[in-house]
């Protein structure tokens, strides 16, 4: 895979100078067009062997283009804040929005490769991480990101020569330390790991582009020209090949039974019983949240349900048990402009809680497969793949010791009508009922269908849905509180309290 | 993921009878249209828990439709012939052609799941196999296969009830053995493995469709309706969503240097030296092929090169060293009708050699990224993804102890002209030179570019390209023979001779 890169390429100084002037102009122009027409982000990954001029290239890109619209992110060891979230969090935080260019220096590729070279992770764990990378990159491409992955390559003799040159020059001597020579010694091992890695993480939409990196001018022109071609191609929307996307239909229910209809929505609970239960579960939840082991966990809770099903009321009974400093609630409405410039999961990734904290989502990423599906805000293929993407997202949370609980609060159509009318009549409740609520109600069957598909496709053992019979608010609130509390208590048993710093 | 399937669905007899009549007619009609318009194959995977009526459903599908155009394949333990090829070989053999329906009963999903449940394979190996499945299925979908994956589900009580019922009936008692009750005992374990498996092998284009399988009529209607909807949707080409496929460009060389131009095409070798070397390497190759350990290996050799570069002559010097019963040569021309009805790799999979044998391909699957690319016989996105698919294919061979050697025989443009003219002049060589050769010659630069990209993207440590300087035929033949021989000798060191049966 490094045949071309192993050759001794050369570009002479005069030719370089001449071309760079044109290239810079063209790049600037492309960048401007990207910014103004702004329909996709460009994400550049910079990776490769040591001493291959990765840093120089990043500097050059910033010099050549308008650096106001390029953001460069360097990923070293995770910070404390980063390590409290799933590994992908810091990458999500740094994603460029549509119309912008983001450069990731050492992204999700660095750690798996290094850890495999040093033997820290097994072949199997390496395979698992590779498949996560492939899924992440596929999602980014499907969401429209122009993903350009540059792999800077040096042959072994080229690497040796490079280190020697740096050492000779007093100005660059500091760049070659023992660590660099260590890398050199394990060159063969490194390539043995990288070759299958590059192969397995290359896809048609996001192949690795191997950059022959030994000669600075050749390297710079290769990257510059490729970047220009890739952005220009994509800007000419007409040239994008359109292949048909065949998403097979989901299975339709044959009878009238489905997980929602199987519920007995009217569940008994008296006010007295409710008060007793509320006190009991709020107490237990509070105790669980104060358990020292809880500092090794976090909770992500999703509240979805029919309009007027009582999501807000249930949520308040939960937060009522908690220290206000330990949780945050996110009411999810239509995405902001900033959010629309990102993959749909972006605005949820950014809200993930730190260790020892709760995040409550009043509506959530499930909008993709509910309202966006029913109202046709996205293509069919988009919400179909969302099931897979959402599952991947939640598994990443669960793997990171985040307790994921998801509630669907279900009321009957009659009960909803009763509550709507009540809201309309009661002055201080009128704000809660809008035209949109009535409009959604007309789509009752379509939503019911979408909810059942959602439950069938995204209820997993690590992130299960809890369907809550909510005609009786008392019952609903207690079920929510109890489910959440039991999930947290169970998770406490799986972790140790973190050491105090 | 089994919420709907765990419910007690029911369809009454009368309603069933009435619907089945219509459904059968519609299915037959769809099948006929599929056969006549024939632009895609339908591949149905049948999987799921024991006792869920998988066999009954397959029988029903054959009964409902025209069974001449359905082929059902059941995969038990691999046969001797199958186990001599990579695991995927038997599935490739059974793929339905365009216009036909294939039913796979226990396909590539069965073994990984069972082996993971029994603990035969580790979590890591399981992850590796899952990623292979995903890549295989993605390739099939990209090649236009309508892939329908039905997962037949029973809840634990449903499975118990089903076994009890079968036991009670004297006619079906034989179907419940100790093995079935063993499965029942490990139900929870099975589901614990299956759930993440289904999740990780579901994609937008090929999701698992969970079939509630407890009630035979409900089960049958669910599958029948879904199959009908899926085929009908796809037949209406207009409804296929077309999303843009953005394949970023490959990197272009900046200078004139590339792996082909870096070669010194004129290599010295006298006729005398050639004779000595030929005898030496033919002898060594012959000895290697007669080594008992060679019965644990096989060889797949690819001969590609410029027109008139001497592929045939080199190949004859190789086969000259071998027992005629131990090898087969495949001259690859335009695909036959049967081959065009399959994914492009199909015709190569079917020719894979058994253990202890050689397969020589005179031109090969690389046509996809050479002639099909240059002549625009396929879309750009198609040959881009072919690099990934070809690498996966060759890795599967290499993992199965097949020695993969690939030769590109390179001659200069002048040398080619000389040879063309010689062929045109010599009566018994005229058949070797056609208009097409002259046409290809006009595309010299485009082919050179395609060859360099091919080498850069598909030369891997397990399946490396050998570039052969072929202006001097003697040199070329010896380099081919020596490379092949050394590769076989090296591989002998990695295996033990198989036990005699």
Give the gist of this structure:
The structure is a homodimer of 501-residue chains. The first copy, chain A, has 501 residues and is α/β, with parallel strands linked by helices.
Structure in words:
The structure is a homodimer of 501-residue chains. The first copy, chain A, has 20 helices and eleven strands. With 501 residues, chain A is of the alpha/beta class. In chain A, helix 11 packs parallel to helix 20 (473-492) and helix 12 crosses helix 20 (473-492). The mean pLDDT of chain A is 92. Chains A and B meet through helix 6, strand 4, helix 9, strand 5 and helix 10 of A and helix 6, strand 4, helix 9, strand 5 and helix 10 of B. Strand 6 (241-245) of chain A pairs antiparallel with strand 6 (241-245) of chain B, so a sheet runs across the interface.
Which characteristics define this entry?
homodimer; 501 residues; alpha/beta; Rossmann fold; five-stranded parallel sheet; 11 strands; 49% helix; 13% strand; elongated
Strand-pairing-aware structural class of chain A: alpha/beta
- What do we call the CATH topology of the largest domain in chain A? Rossmann fold
Residue stretches of chain A low in confidence (pLDDT < 50, at least 5 long) are none
* Rg calc of chain A: 27 Å
Into which percentage range does the β-strand content of chain A fall? 5-15%
The tally of domains of chain A stands at 2
Task: Give the N-to-C terminal Cα separation of chain A.
Answer: 47 Å
Instruction: Find the count of extended strands of chain A (DSSP E, 2+ residues).
Output: 11
- Tally of alpha and pi helices of chain A: 20
How would you describe the shape of chain A? elongated
Please give the CATH class of the largest domain in chain A: Alpha Beta
Strand order of the largest sheet of chain A: 2-3-1-4-5
The pLDDT mean of chain A sits at 92
Quaternary state of the chains: homodimer
Main beta sheet strand tally, sense and closure of chain A: 5 strands, parallel
């Amino acid at each position: 895979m490094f045949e071309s890169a192993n050759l001794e390429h050369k570009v002479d100084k005069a030719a370089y100078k001449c071309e760079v002037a044109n290239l810079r102009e063209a790049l600037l122009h492309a960048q401007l067009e990207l910014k103004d027409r702004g329909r996709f982000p460009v994400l550049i990954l910079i990776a490769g062997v040591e001493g291959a001029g990765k840093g120089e290239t990043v500097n050059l890109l910033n010099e050549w283009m308008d650096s106001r619209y390029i953001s460069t992110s360097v990923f070293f060891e995770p910070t404390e804040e980063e390590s409290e979230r799933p590994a992908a969090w810091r990458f999500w935080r740094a994603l460029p929005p549509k119309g912008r260019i983001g450069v990731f220096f050492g992204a999700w590729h660095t750690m798996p490769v290094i850890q495999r070279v040093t033997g820290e992770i097994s072949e199997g764990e390496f395979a698992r991480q590779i498949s996560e990378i492939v899924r992440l990159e596929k999602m980014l491409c499907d969401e429209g990101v122009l993903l350009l992955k540059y792999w800077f390559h040096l042959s072994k003799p080229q690497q040796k020569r490079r280190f020697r040159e740096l050492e000779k020059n007093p100005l660059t001597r500091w760049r070659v330390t023992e660590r660099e020579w260590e890398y050199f010694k394990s060159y063969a091992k490194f390539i043995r790991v990288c070759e299958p890695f590059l192969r397995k993480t290359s896809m048609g939409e996001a192949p690795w582009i191997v950059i022959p990196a030994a000669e600075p001018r050749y390297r710079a022109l290769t990257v510059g020209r490729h970047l220009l071609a890739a952005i220009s191609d994509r800007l000419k929307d007409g040239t994008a090949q359109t292949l048909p996307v065949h998403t097979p239909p989901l299975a339709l229910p044959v009878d009238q039974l489905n997980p929602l209809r199987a519920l007995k929505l009217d569940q008994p609970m008296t006010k007295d019983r409710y008060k007793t239960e509320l006190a009991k579960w709020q107490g237990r939840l509070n105790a669980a949240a104060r358990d020292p082991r809880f500092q090794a966990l976090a909770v992500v809770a999703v509240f979805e349900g029919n309009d007027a099903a009582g999501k807000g009321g249930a949520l308040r009974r939960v937060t009522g048990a908690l220290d206000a400093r330990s949780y945050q609630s996110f009411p999810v409405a239509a995405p902001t402009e900033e959010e629309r410039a990102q993959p749909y999961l972006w605005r949820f990734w950014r809200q993930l809680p730190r260790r020892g904290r709760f995040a409550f989502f009043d509506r959530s990423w499930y909008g993709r497969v509910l309202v966006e599906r029913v109202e046709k805000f996205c293509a069919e293929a988009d919400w179909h793949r969302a099931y897979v993407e959402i599952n991947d997202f939640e598994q990443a949370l669960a793997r990171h010791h985040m307790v994921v609980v998801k509630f669907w609060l279900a009321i009957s159509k009659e009960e909803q009508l009763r509550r709507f009318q009540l809201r309309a009549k009661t002055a201080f409740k009128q704000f809660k009922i809008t035209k949109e609520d009535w409009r959604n109600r007309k789509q009752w069957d379509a939503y019911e269908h979408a909810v059942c598909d959602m439950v069938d496709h995204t209820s997993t053992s690590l992130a299960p849905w809890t369907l809550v019979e909510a005609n009786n608010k008392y019952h609903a609130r207690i079920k929510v509180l109890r489910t959440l509390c039991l999930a947290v208590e169970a998770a406490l048993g799986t972790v140790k309290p973190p050491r105090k710093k």
